[in-house]
Amino acid sequence: MFGQPTTIVIFGATGDLTRRTLIPALFQLACKGRLPDPLRIVGFGRRDYSDDRFREFMGEGVQEFGQLAGRTGEWDTFARSISYFQGDLETPANINSS
Ligand SMILES: NC(=O)c1ccc[n+]([C@@H]2O[C@H](COP(=O)([O-])OP(=O)(O)OC[C@H]3O[C@@H](n4cnc5c(N)ncnc54)[C@H](OP(=O)(O)O)[C@@H]3O)[C@@H](O)[C@H]2O)c1
Predict the structure, then answer these.
(1) Each residue of 44-92: pLDDT tens digit?
(2) Please, what are the domains in the chain?
(3) Ligand 1 binding pocket includes 48 (Cβ within 6 Å)
(4) Pick from 42, 43, 72, 93: CA 20 to 30 A from residue 86's CA?
C-alpha cells in the first residue's frame, strides 16, 4: 500500500462530517505515518471555495476538534495534499469533469 499513489475523494466535503471527523482522522493517521504516500485528498462540495479556502476551513475544524495543538508544521504539510472541486451532484456535467 505505501508508495502506491492514492487519491481519496470525499463527496460532501464542506459538510460537518468531513470537518469534524474525516479530515481530523486522516490527519491523525498522517501524523502516525499510516497513510499511503503519495496521497491526494479531493473534497467535492457545492460551495464556491478555492483550494486555499477549503484547506483553511478544514484546518479550522482540526483546530476546533483538538488535533492541531503543537502540530501546525505537520498540518501545513498534510494540507498541501488537499484540494477542492466545486460542483453539484445533481448536475451530471460536474460529475463527468471531476
Ligand atoms: N456529521 C456527523 O457527525 C455525521 C455522523 C454520522 C453520519 N453522518 C451522515 O453523513 C452524511 C453527511 O453529513 P454532514 O453532517 O456532513 O451533512 P452536512 O453538514 O449537511 O453536509 C452536506 C454536504 O453535502 C454537500 N451536498 C449536499 N447536496 C449536494 C449536491 N447536490 N451536490 C454536491 N454536494 C452536495 C454539501 O455541500 P455544500 O455545503 O457545499 O452545499 C455538504 O458538503 C449524512 O448522511 C449524515 O447523516 C454525519
Answers:
(1) 999 999 999 999 999 999 998 877 778 889 999 999 999 999 999 998 7
(2) 6-96 (3.40.50.720)
(3) no
(4) 72
